[in-house]
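PROTEIN DESIGN WORKSHEET
SECTION A - STRUCTURE
LENGTH: 603
TOKENS:
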């Protein structure tokens, strides 16, 4: 891997994220313009392997919205997938592509057959499968159900589609624990433990008192660079003395205003107060009390029964859950640590930039880092206790016989190393841990999905008609899937499998208008007949516009829309492949009429 070539993204997601991308294999079912743009945006950053499945040949429509196809390819009637793979691989020599000249249905059936009943898949196993409308809805459901229920390694499935000036991205995946959410630097939690410092930190802070005359006389230059955390700590001690309450901790805005006043009132010895005073006053905020305020996502994760020692026994193979039992064992260790330390979590190790001397900053970093290492050791010990007491590893490490111990000592050491690395990772990212679940699944029948979605709530949450039109576009796109299952083709198309769209003929105009009326009937039965909203006239008008627009566009993919959708889909693919950052958990709809994305949030 070239560090120079990928310098920018190495800074963005690190060496581990880049390696995950380089080792991934993405299978794309359908060489649509959106799918090609998506692949382009993954190949350039360094996607290792990809397979493009499509049985069609280069046609006139492809020339109109795909810059990777040339006129000579059309004249020679070349297979579309072969042409695209060749051109895409030229973007990055580190990416390897395979063209599969067969229909998406044939590939899907072959994959399901070859991975059923415990049989081995021939070829490189896919890390992610991306499907397009080239795979009919019925076959999409079958593939989704297979990936969801079969005892396979976890393979996420993504559906991506562009339809005129609108589009949709939907992900099916088992639950996953996002460890590396990677918030912006200014949003990272600085858990500095100033109100209840651990012994080593307390000793350092006591030795760096802005009221200390010895410190001022021996190092007047250094005194001017006392860190702001020392100012706040000693101001708090003064407040506690004034209140005659050694346990006082600021909790309200008034308390922090009082603390800010105490910082400014400290008897500084120099003519000019230390540089850290202004910084300390700026940081007198609620966020200082972070150890006592666990995030909602972290509390929800730790309330899971599996994080309390009730993780599922697993003696090998791939767990049905997307989160392996060994991870739940470490989360159990974190839960136990918090319970035994009066609700204070293990220290994450993050220390923000502090305006002070290099020596003092290094000392603080060392103190905080040692605290994190100590806490990780405790959590790891709890996790190993839980693993050994359960059947997570099939009872391998509970045997008392000398022979078993001798045979398994190497394997146990490897497990301890894995638990140690996992513990460190979870503790370092403890403030951004998030258990994500994805819905609705792609194996749900289109009619059932249309019935399930809370369109009344979506419409009620909108502030104007333009936002309501976005909701109606989502309903129309779901209704179009129902239409396809009923008639075997996408509304507005003569043939749903070849993706061709014809304009200009009178018969074609009658076709999409007729299909639009049928789509209105399908969607209207769900939205209008069962809606309790008072604005039914407005809803019907917007619904008719959305349905007719979807039918008029067919599966047409204007390049600008395909480019936007491809970029968004590539971003979500990279999140899924790297297990970094939080992917979308609900359908993502693009409304090109307003140039915005909308997520169909669940209640």
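SECTION B - SEQUENCE
RESIDUE ASSIGNMENT:
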């Amino acid at each position: 891997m070239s560090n120079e070539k990928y310098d920018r993204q190495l800074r963005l997601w690190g060496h581990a994220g880049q390696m995950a991308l380089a080792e991934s294999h993405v299978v794309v079912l359908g060489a649509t313009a959106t799918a090609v743009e998506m692949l382009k945006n993954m190949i350039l950053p360094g996607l290792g392997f990809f397979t493009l499945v499509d049985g069609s040949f280069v046609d006139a429509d492809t020339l109109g919205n795909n810059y990777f196809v040339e006129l000579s390819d059309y004249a020679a009637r070349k297979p579309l997938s072969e042409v695209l793979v060749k051109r895409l691989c030229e973007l990055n020599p580190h990416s390897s592509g395979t063209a599969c000249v067969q229909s998406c249905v044939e590939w899907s059936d072959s994959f399901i057959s070859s991975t059923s009943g415990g049989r081995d898949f021939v070829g490189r196993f896919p890390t992610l499968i991306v499907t397009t409308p080239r795979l009919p809805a019925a076959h999409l459901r079958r593939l989704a159900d297979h990936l969801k229920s079969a005892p396979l390694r976890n393979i996420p499935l993504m559906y991506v589609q562009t339809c005129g000036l609108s589009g949709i991205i939907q992900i099916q995946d088992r639950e996953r624990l996002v460890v590396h959410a990677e918030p912006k630097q200014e949003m990272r939690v600085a858990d500095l433990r100033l109100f209840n410092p651990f012994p080593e930190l307390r000793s350092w802070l006591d030795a760096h008192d802005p009221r200390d005359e010895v410190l001022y006389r021996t190092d007047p230059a250094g005194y001017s660079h006392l860190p702001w955390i020392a100012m706040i700590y000693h101001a708090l001690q003064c407040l506690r003395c004034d209140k005659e309450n050694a346990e006082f901790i600021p909790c309200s805005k008034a308390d922090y205003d009082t603390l800010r006043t105490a910082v400014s009132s400290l008897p500084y010895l120099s003519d000019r107060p230390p540089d850290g005073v202004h910084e300390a006053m700026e940081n007198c905020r609620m966020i200082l009390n972070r150890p006592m305020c666990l995030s909602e996502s972290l509390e929800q994760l730790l309330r899971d029964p599996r994080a309390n020692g009730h993780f599922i026994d697993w003696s090998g193979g791939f767990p049905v859950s997307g989160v392996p039992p060994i991870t739940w064992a470490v989360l159990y260790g974190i839960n136990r640590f918090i319970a035994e330390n009066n609700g204070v979590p293990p220290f994450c190790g993050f220390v923000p930039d502090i305006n002070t001397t290099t020596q003092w900053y290094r000392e603080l970093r060392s103190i905080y880092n040692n605290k994190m290492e100590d806490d990780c050791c405790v959590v790891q010990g709890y996790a190993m206790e839980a693993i050994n007491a359960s059947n997570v590893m099939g009872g391998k490490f509970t045997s008392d016989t000398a022979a078993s111990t001798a045979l398994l000592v190497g394997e146990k050491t490897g497990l301890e190393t894995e638990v140690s690395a996992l513990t460190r990772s979870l503790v370092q990212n403890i403030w951004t841990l998030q258990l994500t679940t994805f819905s609705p699944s792609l194996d749900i029948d289109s009619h059932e999905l249309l019935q399930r979605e809370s369109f009344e709530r979506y419409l009620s949450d909108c502030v104007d008609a333009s936002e309501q039109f976005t909701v109606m576009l989502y309903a129309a796109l779901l209704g179009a899937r129902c239409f396809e299952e009923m008639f075997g083709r996408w509304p507005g198309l003569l043939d749903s499998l070849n993706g061709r769209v014809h304009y200009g003929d009178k018969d074609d105009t009658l076709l999409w208008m007729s299909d639009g009326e049928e789509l209105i009937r399908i969607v209207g039965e769900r939205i209008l007949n069962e809606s309790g909203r008072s604005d039914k006239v407005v809803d019907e008008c917007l619904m008719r516009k959305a349905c007719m627009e979807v039918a008029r566009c067919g599966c047409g993919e204007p390049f600008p829309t395909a480019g936007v959708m491809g970029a968004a889909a590539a971003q979500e693919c990279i999140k899924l492949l790297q297990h970094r950052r939080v992917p979308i958990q609900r359908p993502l709809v693009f409304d090109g009429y307003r140039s915005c994305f909308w997520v169909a949030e669940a209640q």
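SECTION C - NOTES
Strands lie at 25-29, 49-53, 96-100, 128-131, 157-163, 166-172, 176-178, 434-436, 588-591, 596-599.
The chain is about 50% helix and 10% strand.
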